[in-house]
Amino acid sequence: MYLQHFGQNERIGDIVSGNTTLLFVLCGGISYSIMAQRLKDRETEMTSFRAKMLARAVFIDVIGYLLIMLNTSFGVILPAYAAIFVLALILVNRSTRVLVTTAVALTVIAPPLMILGMSLLSEAYLLADIAGGPMSALALAPAFVAGMAIGRLDLTKIRTAFSLAVGGVVMFVSGKALDAFVLPELRPSFEAWLVRIQGAGTTGYQPPDLYAIWPLNTEPPLWHMLLYAAPHTATTFQTLIGLGFALLVLGLICLVPKNISSVLMPFAAVGRVALTMYAAQFIVKWSLGHAGIENGLEGVPFSDLLIVVATLAIGWVIARLPNGPLESLMRHFDQIFSVSRTVQASK
Question: Where is each DUF418 domain found (predicted)?
Answer without folding.
Answer: 232-332
